[in-house]
Amino acid sequence: MTRNVGIVGGGHTKWGVREASYKDLIQEAGKATFEDVPDVTPEDIEGLFVGSVQPERFAFQTHVAPMVAELLGVDVDSMIARTELACASGQAALRYAWLAIAAGQIDTALVLGVEKMNLPREYTPEAQTSMANVMDREFDGVNGFNAPPYFAMIAQRHMHEYDTTREQLAQVAAKNKTHAANNAFAHFQKEVSVDDVYDSFELSPPLCLYDCSGVTDGAAGLILMSEEKAREVTDEAAWITGSGQTCLGSNSINNLPSMSAWPQATKAAEQAYEQAGIDDPVAELDVAEVHDCFSISEIVEYEDLGWVEKGEGGKFMEEGRSELDGDIAVNPRGGLLGCGHPLGATGVSQALEVFNQFRGTVEPERQVPDPETGLIHNLSGSASVHSVMTLARGRL
Amino acid sequence: MNENQGDNADDERTERAAPDQRAGVEPITDGGTDRDVVEIPKTIELPRLLDFYELQNAETTEIVEFYDNLRDGQLTTTECRECGELHFPPRIVCPECRSEDLEYVDLPHEGELFAFSTVRAGAPMGMEDEVPFVTGIVDLGDVQLSGRIDDAEYDDLEIGDPVELKIVEIDGPVDHERVFYRFEPQE
């Protein structure tokens, strides 16, 4: 028997190349989060979950969860941990906070995702080493497999097997970056056209620079509560209706199930849909924040989250079905392509975006009309793990 | 702010602005010119596990036979004598049946290019001077593995192109001989 759990508030730092330290980002996000829910104070927090991937490499700091507790004045009396799941670390933190509350262990949790990724420019190769180490370092990272060439190969295979077009990839990038142009905290606040994507530097063909998410500093926080507690502090929440996660016992190149399909995403989505009672995701989901680390990723996700037949993802984009007024508004926040991708913070920010879409507090240019249901999705590493969470608007 | 800032802009220690005067304890400051100096290294040598190549000797890995075979000119991997499962990367315990009774078997040295791209910027440490380089996934039949594709231009390659193994020596910060495998287009 599990309990109903809701997101009752959250907050954000400005994302970008920040002239700020790891600890500064934590404090900014914490302040914004607590200010969003005036009736919850740091003293109310029973569990603290911090999503952060490489503080040891980017900020030379470990044991970061107690650092967050100290900086935000949180006396944790039940659960405290940092979660590391590469690009899905923020969603992992959110998932564990949900589980802890659903299981009745705690009533109130703080989830904070943070990453300081920008080192001085001369240390770019060092930062890229840390990113290549997200793959199996000994057998894949060694071959220069950081994210851009790896996802370029996924694009190449998807185009080869399913006739997905370069233009469809560019349409995803232009859509998401244009959403971000109207998002005050996004790293990249400039409208981008399909031609602009083509004209950007061809970093790892077929992918150009604008097909890639940025190297971004940022943090975001969420407060989660049991329904009973939530009713004491707010009249609006985003209920977590389902949460699935899958890894098929594979991580390195030889053992991954496919270079053009992510069956892990399909399984994770099926778990979440079943918990949420969603039979027809395209008809029932209003807004989705999916992991567009690269433009190709979003197209594969349309397919493997069960929205269209395999190979039809490019058409889903081309036909406008993922636009703000389409079947499912995908990445109205601006996605990783527009907001940037401070690894540990992304999943937290996506969930906050869905809640903000529900309560109508986002910039009007990117507001989805009256959303009632939402989804967040993150892949991590070599896309060996996929995490899916469904949310529903709650009026208390 | 210190009015004099900028006069000695080349020397960070002298250009630093004096702290604003506050009430209370007199600051311990002499302009920063007479302080004890703590020396730390100006550069730090590449840590041994940041050069991407394992140490490849018996003191550091239990798959040393893989690297020994590679030094001898043969790409190999482990196969389970109990259940027959072929692994790549090589293992010390079979993930299918937990047996430790594994043997090293030869992998083919010729295969087909399954996927490839090129790295034009943003390469990891130790590779930044090699850009642009081609990297890809090679299908050897029973195993599909990643590998650098040497002596090739991205625009000249196609999926399915035949490639063959080459073995390179690694000249780095450790004393013992290290090697790794790459691929190149077949003649």
From TrEMBL, chain A:
Stored InterPro entries? Thiolase (IPR002155), Thiolase-like (IPR016039), Thiolase_C_2 (IPR055140), Thiolase_N (IPR020616)
Segments forming domain Thiolase C-terminal = 252-392
Q: Mind listing the GO biological process terms from this record? A: isoprenoid biosynthetic process
- Which segments constitute the Thiolase N-terminal domain? 5-192
Q: What keywords are assigned to this protein?
A: Isoprene biosynthesis
Kindly indicate whether the keyword Nucleotide-binding belongs to this entry: no
Q: Which Gene3D superfamilies match?
A: 3.40.47.10
Q: Which branch of life, at top level? A: Archaea
**What SUPFAM superfamilies does its record include?**
Thiolase-like
Q: Is Transport tagged as a keyword?
A: no
Enumerate the CDD domains for this protein.
Answer: SCP-x_thiolase
Pfam families from the xrefs?
A: Thiolase_C_1 (PF22691), Thiolase_N (PF00108)
Query: How is this protein named in the record?
Result: Beta-ketoacyl synthase N-terminal-like domain-containing protein
What is the organism field in this record? Halobellus rarus
Q: What is the lineage of its organism?
A: Archaea, Methanobacteriati, Methanobacteriota, Stenosarchaea group, Halobacteria
